[in-house]
Amino acid sequence: MTTTTETVPTGTYSVDPSHSNVGFEVRHMGMATVRGSFKKFTGTLIAEAGKLDVNGEVETGSIETGDENRDAHLLSPEFFDADQFPQLTLTSTSTGPDADDKIKLSGEITLHGVTKPIELSGEFGESAEDPWGNQRVGFEVAGEIDRREFGLDWNQILPNGNLLVANTVKIILGVSAVKNA
Q1: How confident is the prediction for the chain on average, in pLDDT?
Q2: Which residues pair with 118 in a beta bridge?
Q3: What phi, psi does 43 have (nearest 5°)?
Q4: Element (H, E) at 71
């Protein structure tokens, strides 16, 4: 059974970073997908009266793509400029079912000092009690952004006409959250 935003038990939940993931995917040279994630993040879900608010913060300096040189380049002023913009944020403006009866999370993402609307869709898992007596909820959502809209426009055109780094970036959130006492 899939849980919907209307059936999330009322309360405030904190994202459990050891059981959650903030990730991204981007095409490299038009031929392969590079995946990465952020290792330091926090988030809150507030459920009441059929409404669900989602807020999160990510430390840009915690990026990991499996390549130290690439990570250093992504942290530089040519991309995230992590020294000047140490966090990115996500704030929901509405949540509910989409046309396919999946969860749709509409909100705003602030990245590199720029705030833009974002839509993520996916599925809720079941709400359940964990072995330690904590109430948990979980969901997985994904969406896309154009990184240029956030000033992340460094790139190179390759001899075959492909871009070194695609402009479209897929954002993927896998969240497990624990109800606060």
Answers
A1: 92
A2: 107
A3: -165, 160
A4: helix 68-75
Do residues 38 and 15 lie in contact, with contact meaning Cβ atoms separated by under 8 Å?
A: no
Look-up of token digits 């969860």: 103
Question: How far is it between the farthest Cα atoms of the chain?
Answer: 58
pTM for the whole thing? 0.90
Q: What tokens were used for 54?
A: 């989602």
Are the beta carbons of 109 and 115 closer than 8 angstroms? yes
105-119 pLDDT, tens per residue?
Answer: 999 999 999 999 999
Helix (H, G, I), strand (E, B) or coil at 149: helix
Rg (CA), the chain: 17
Quick one: pLDDT at residue 1? 38
Cα 165-25-143 angle, rounded to 5 deg: 115
Residue range 47-68, pLDDT digits in tens: 998 788 999 999 999 999 999 9
- C-alpha to C-alpha distance for 24 and 45, rounded to whole angstroms: 21
Instruction: Decide if 56 contacts 16 (C-beta within 8 A).
Output: no
Say whether domain 5-179 belongs to CATH 1.10.1660.10: no
The torsion of the CA quartet 6, 92, 169, 111, rounded to 10 degrees, works out to -160
Residue listed under structure tokens 């040519």: 78
pLDDT value at position 6?
A: 62
